[in-house]
Amino acid sequence: MKKHNFYAGPxxxxxxxxxxxxxxxxxxxxxxxxxxxxxxxxxxxxxxxEEAESLFKELLAIPEGYSVLFLGGGASLQxxxxxxxxxxxxxxxxxxxxxxxxxxxxxxxxxxxxxxxSSEDRNFNYIPTGYTIPADADYFHITxxxxxxxxxxxxxxxxxxxxxxxxxxxxxxxPLDISKYALIYGGAQKNLAPAGLTFVIIRQDIxxxxxxxxxxxxxxxxxxxxxxxxxxxxxxxxxSALQTLKWIKDMGGVAAMQKKNIEKANLLxxxxxxxxxxxxxxxxxxxxxxxxxxxxxxxxxxxxxxFLDFATAEGMIGIKGHRSVGGFRASTYNALPKESVxxxxxxMKEFESRKI
Length: 356
Known about the structure:
By secondary structure, this protein is of the alpha/beta class. Helix content is 35%, strand content 17%. Strand 6 (145-146) and strand 7 form a beta hairpin.
């Protein structure tokens, strides 16, 4: 039976990426050595990281004046590294979920933090609007996609101060106007590569404005100056990321990814709204294209475990909702084929026919 991978992260990767990575683990490009055992400063790996940086810039149309970094530590390290480098007196944050909450907590170690708006009052089931970004903030931070709650900011925000975005789970899923952002970061394990890699897209002119000394390893300038090679980078995930970037380009680029993602999301949201057993959990205008969350309607709540068991037996893997919200979550990242969404919809319809 075919397995349909809806895990939220680490999550589905393109078959192309998995195949090429497996081949490279055995023998990288016919050199007789594994990607796991070559020097990160040798010509074979240098070609990989340079191509990955170049392709990242091409796919997202990253303008001059920006650097692309490949680091370790995950988005969680960026929660602290970001304010260490950028927060001189005050930063502004939009609180739309658990990861935004954690980013706010870390930023408070480095200066004043203004939370301009929060959707915590309704369990983060919407994206706040109508807030004011302080003009004297050093930067404004948003989390574009909320994997746990299933909301997403689907358009680039206009900000009077440098805009910073955690795009861990929706990077490369839609075109961006990079010029609107001062810094974009994220863990790669949700839409790009295996766990262990962090990407940072940074406009170089925002650096050097804080008064505090910054430890070498936590200083963005260190990694810009050394081309992400100050210390040994996560070589295998970078190789895998390159394969995913190649796959995205071959599939038609980021605009093509967006079109496919909209088709997949619309298909599943339509069934959630139609099916008598289920209901969505977030405001329709803020529904994520990456993490689709839903629950049983109240009168069928007792069927939740039964449906999960039924769907799992039919090959639907990873659809259990996050432990903090329950219900179900189908992550529909770039690499998930439309056929998997169609299979989940068929399972939902079949379960409904058995119970109603």
